[in-house]
């Protein structure tokens, strides 16, 4: 399973402008999350039995991404307690949802729709204010 960040350091245009938070490191990571979700959609529609390794890799990447946000908060002296709790809850929910896929009580398409929606909402409602707080504290 992939536990390291992608080597790309530039945005490719996949992430809509409305979801940019103006923290380049995090924007690139957000774009990578959506790139992975899109790749999983493409590989899972109309195919036969699907390996869930790439789904596990997505969750590993999310965990790494959440740690990146926490590191930035700590560097800037921003309280991250509530935001970290949201991340922990999300990882728990996604791992539970992936287990449901694994056991046949849910499907990958529902998992991917939920993941994509959660991140769009999270970026808009929680990461944008988080990024503004970091910029305010740093500047």
What coarse outline follows from CA principal-axis ratios?
globular
The helix content is over 70%
Category from helices, strands and their pairing: mainly alpha
| Number of H/I helices | 4
Global Rg? 15 Å
Largest sheet: none
Features:
0% strand, single chain, globular, disordered N terminus, 139 residues, mainly alpha, 4 helices
Draw up the topology in text:
Blueprint: H1 24-44, H2 53-76, H3 81-102, H4 108-138
Helix pairs in contact: 1-2, 1-4, 2-3, 3-4
Account of the protein in words:
The chain is mainly alpha-helical and 139 residues long. It is 71% helix and 0% strand. It contains four helices and no strands. The chain has helices spanning 24-44, 53-76, 81-102, 108-138. α1 (24-44) packs antiparallel against α2 (53-76) and α2 (53-76) packs antiparallel against α3 (81-102). The termini are far apart. The model is unreliable at 1-8 (pLDDT under 50).
């Amino acid at each position: 399973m992939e536990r390291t960040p992608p080597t790309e350091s530039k945005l490719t245009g996949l992430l809509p402008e409305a979801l940019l938070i103006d923290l380049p490191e995090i924007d690139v990571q957000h774009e990578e999350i959506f790139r992975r979700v899109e790749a999983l959609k493409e590989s899972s529609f109309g195919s036969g039995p699907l390996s869930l390794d790439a789904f596990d890799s997505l969750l590993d990447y999310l965990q790494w991404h959440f740690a990146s946000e926490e590191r930035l908060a700590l560097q800037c002296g921003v309280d991250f307690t509530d935001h970290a709790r949201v991340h922990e809850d999300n990882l728990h929910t996604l791992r539970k949802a992936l287990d449901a896929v694994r056991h046949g009580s849910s499907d990958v398409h529902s998992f991917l729709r939920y993941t994509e929606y959660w991140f769009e909402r999270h970026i808009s409602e929680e990461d944008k204010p988080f990024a503004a707080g970091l910029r305010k504290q740093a500047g």
